[in-house]
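Protein in question quoted in full.
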Amino acid sequence: MGMRRDDLADFLRRSRARLTPDDVGLAHGPRRRTPGLRREEVAALADMSADYYMRLEQARSPQPSVQILAALARALRLDDDERDHLYLLAGHRPPEAARAGDDLRPSLLFVLDRLDGVPVQVLSDLGDLLAQNDLAQALFGCVCTVAPDDRNVLVRWFTGPGVRDHFVPEDHDARSRQLVADLRAAVARRGDDTEARALVARLAGASPEFAELWDRHEVAVRRSGPYRFLHPELGRIELDCEVLATPAADQRLLVFTPPTGETETLDALAVLGPQHRHDPAPAR
């Protein structure tokens, strides 16, 4: 990721021009020739030299550090999207987005309720099942009898007895690798995160298979792919899974659809209903 000096300089100039002294709590002072803040005012607000800031706006500076960028974002009153743009123009990875945790926005719950024709789940980036609609519950089994700490697809997959019986055997190895590789990417995004470290430690202590896969350091963010199930009532079911990101980096919406667009399988799941099974089957 390289630094785009000209674009960075232009973005800084235009961001500075959009601000007034009142916006940042400064006195107006003498008559101003142009709108916006002066360069030296931005430099003072960011606690840097005016000469260094001038070189940034003139596209003559070396790559600024993330500390400099954070100070500029505060000084220029950038929102999260503008801050991320600033980091990318400077050749740095933006800070991690704010996490939603276990809280689901009402709008997301509304979407979940309205997508009643296909199985839908909301998962955290660590694999915690946060919500699912009736068709998803009919497909994967009721999880209401599972302890909250076990409502995690990796915990269920690597430690739950009988969980893998609901998936085609020839897919087991690939699914194990994919789950661990996706978790590895999520843990890296979170940085030194207590919840992530605790989950990895729990899985590594309970499953030699997980520990071996974790040591491979494979990384692959899950985005879409086929799912092949062995349903106890309906037999073999094949669906496509589309993983949709939400504005919060730690939540995902999973939508399962028939690969051919046929609805017979979904109609059969709807007839079974969400309470057709009572065993704590896998969340996904």
